[in-house]
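Hey,
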Amino acid sequence: MLDNLRDSASKSPFFQEEQSPPEETNTSSQQPIGGIFLGMNAIQRFILAVMIFMMTCVVGSFCLLITEKIVIP
C-alpha cells in the first residue's frame, strides 16, 4: 500500500509546472457600495453591535458585583 503511494507521489509533482495566469476582473463590480460583512446588511450589523454592547454591560456589571466594587442596596 505504501509502495503504491510512494510511486504515485513520484509520478505527479506537488506543484504543477504549467499554471494559467489568473484572469483580471473588474474589482468595482465585485463589491457592493453598501458593503457586506459576513453576509449581513446594515440593520443586521447594527443589531449585532447593540447585542454585543449589552452583553458587555451585563458581564461587566456581574464582574463588579463579584469583586464587590459595587453593592446592591
